[in-house]
Amino acid sequence: MSGQTPQFGDLSIGKAAADEFVRLPRYPALFEIRAARMKTLAAANPAAGFLGLMVRVFSAQADASLLAGEVVPPSAEAIARAREHAMPPIATDSWVPTATYRAALRFIAANISRDGLPQATIDVLAGLGEAPDEHLDNLARAHLESAIPPHWQGEAIFAVAALQVEFARIASLLPKEAIKPLDAPGLCPCCGSPPVAGVVVADHAFGRRFLSCGLCSTSWHYVRVACITCGTEKDVAYQEIEGGDGVAKCESCDDCRTYSKIFYQQKNMAVEALCDDLATLSLDLMVNNAGWKRHAPNPFVPVI
Ligand SMILES: [Zn+2]
Ligand SMILES: [Zn+2]
To answer: Using CB atoms within 10 A as the burial measure, which of 20, 151, 174, 300 is most buried?
Structure first.
């Protein structure tokens, strides 16, 4: 293991911070925050075209999140029942496509600025605008079941964006104190999806790692120096781009041969798990080429 022993254990962390398990999504502000962060990251990135599209997607999500529409959070009884069975309260496999999801997807497809986009993307957006409910629902189900056929991948990005709006909104309404770790602590305790990455925070919970859900945007505490896939603490190492700024590292595990990314707020307070993950695909390539497999895809990059 190269040089990532926890350095903060001897600092006095308040009990509230030490006990903090979950941070529910800041709905709807999170989408504006992402659009701003992505804009900064895109400016100096070789993948500026793709990241620029993501700026537009996040901005459209921010606007879609202001649309009126009904979401029904689970009742206290349903949350208690889920806990009894070690299930997440808004499990994706029990989600039923809703009118608010479809409205968000159609809104996003209609409102993304076409200026300078490739014609293929413009055609995908136009197609989504005219697609029947059934097709939009099938896109959502295919994403949630990790079974998107190759010819749907162009559309799936926008379906993911609409699903994120819906799930973040419901997650933001959950009672924080009722959210507990799952038996698989590397999965989101609200919806059961895998995280996109982790952030070692530098706020009141200084030095603690929070994983960030790729679907509902909940963050939850996960101990440092432990593989998020298999939990081992023994065979974990850290890798980064040589000469980099230390903001992004990969935590690789020699036990299960997977890796996940960690971003360090201490190096840059603006880091945001989803955006910084998308802006560091060169790190994925490096670690993939060295023989580790990513723990789970970024929902906007299903092929990595
Ligand atoms: Zn989640
Ligand atoms: Zn592992």
So the answer is: 174
94/152 same-domain check:
yes
Both 167 and 29 in a single domain?
A: yes
Residue 301, domain member (yes or no) = no
For ligand 2, an ion, list residues with CB under 5 A. 227, 229-230, 253, 255-256
Nearest residue to 156 (alpha-carbon basis) of 122, 197, 105: 105
Q: Is residue 282 part of a domain?
A: yes
Q: Give residue-wise pLDDT tens across range 67-106.
A: 877 788 999 999 999 999 889 999 999 999 999 999 999 9
Domain co-membership, 109 together with 142: yes
- CA dist., res. 103 & res. 108, Å (int): 9
Question: pTM for the whole thing?
Answer: 0.92
What tens digit of pLDDT does each residue of 233-259 get?
999 999 998 888 999 999 999 999 999
Element holding 128 (H helix, E strand): helix 119-130
Ligand closest in space to the Cα of 212: 1
Number of domains in the chain: 2
